[in-house]
């Protein structure tokens, strides 16, 4: 059984987010020479995220390059990210979901993508609704042209929601003939270059332009709710070093 099938939840939980994870320079210094992701093979793109911001942080620069090349690009968010701060009341949680939907809409616009679709599954509990998510993704992908890219969080990303979305996307892609492209988000936090838990042999790297990176940076800035904790003294979901790392390491996809 590969690491992708069993998941890397234990690795992720062993590295609390406020601790910062693998420093950006470790990834930069490794200067990984990965084969290039061939964007010319993408007729249409559906980027699935577990939470609003996954698509931007993990695949935003690639998506904006494709959008700029005239490829139809669409975001599908499995949840509205209401569980980002567990200490919130029901009403505050509802407000956070509205905020995050709005942030996602603004980010999609910055990236040049179509208006996002939200599937409204419960944040933090996607695995309990994996079959429902698979069915919804099959419905979405069935209407797309042959060979449409279905980009989703990597099945071994460590975060339970990311892995569940990745598994649902893999099942939906298999059934519809879509091309599965798995992007890591939290892997950059808990893993390290050459880590055997990562399927490097399937890894491809997008050749990014300075303009695409700048667009990704602007889109990432839309997710303000993730950089500021809603309660005094609380921890934001995305500390500055996590965001810096995601904006620096480039974009890798497992194909
Ligand atoms: Zn996420």
From TrEMBL:
<protein>
    <submittedName>
        <fullName>LmbE family protein</fullName>
    </submittedName>
</protein>
<dbReference type="GO" id="GO:0016137">
    <property type="term" value="P:glycoside metabolic process"/>
</dbReference>
<dbReference type="InterPro" id="IPR003737">
    <property type="entry name" value="GlcNAc_PI_deacetylase-related"/>
</dbReference>
<keyword id="KW-0862">Zinc</keyword>
<feature type="region of interest" description="Disordered">
    <location>
        <begin position="1"/>
        <end position="21"/>
    </location>
</feature>
<dbReference type="InterPro" id="IPR024078">
    <property type="entry name" value="LmbE-like_dom_sf"/>
</dbReference>
<dbReference type="GO" id="GO:0016811">
    <property type="term" value="F:hydrolase activity, acting on carbon-nitrogen (but not peptide) bonds, in linear amides"/>
</dbReference>
<feature type="compositionally biased region" description="Polar residues">
    <location>
        <begin position="1"/>
        <end position="11"/>
    </location>
</feature>
<dbReference type="Pfam" id="PF02585">
    <property type="entry name" value="PIG-L"/>
</dbReference>
């Amino acid at each position: 059984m590969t690491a992708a099938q069993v998941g890397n939840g234990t690795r992720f939980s062993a590295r609390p987010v406020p601790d910062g994870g693998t420093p950006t320079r470790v990834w930069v210094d490794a200067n990984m020479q990965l084969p290039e992701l061939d964007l010319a093979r993408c007729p249409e793109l559906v980027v699935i995220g577990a939470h609003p911001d996954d698509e931007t942080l993990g695949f935003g620069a690639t998506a904006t390059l494709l959008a700029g090349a005239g490829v139809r690009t669409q975001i599908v968010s499995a949840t509205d990210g209401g569980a980002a701060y567990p200490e919130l009341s029901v009403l505050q949680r509802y407000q956070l979901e509205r905020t995050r939907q709005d942030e996602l809409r603004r980010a999609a616009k910055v990236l040049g993508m179509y208006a996002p679709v939200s599937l409204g599954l419960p944040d933090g509990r996607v695995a309990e609704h994996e079959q429902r998510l698979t069915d919804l993704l099959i419905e979405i992908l069935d209407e797309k042209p042959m060979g449409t890219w279905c980009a989703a969080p990597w099945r071994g990303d460590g975060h339970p929601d990311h892995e569940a979305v990745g598994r649902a996307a893999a099942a939906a892609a298999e059934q519809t003939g879509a091309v599965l492209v798995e992007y890591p988000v939290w892997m950059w936090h808990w893993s390290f270059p050459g880590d055997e838990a990562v399927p490097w042999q399937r890894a491809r790297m997008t050749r990014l332009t300075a303009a695409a990176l700048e667009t990704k940076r602007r889109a990432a800035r839309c997710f303000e709710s993730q950089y500021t904790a809603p309660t005094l003294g609380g921890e934001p979901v995305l500390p500055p070093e996590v965001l810096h790392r995601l904006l620096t390491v480039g974009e890798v996809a497992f194909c």
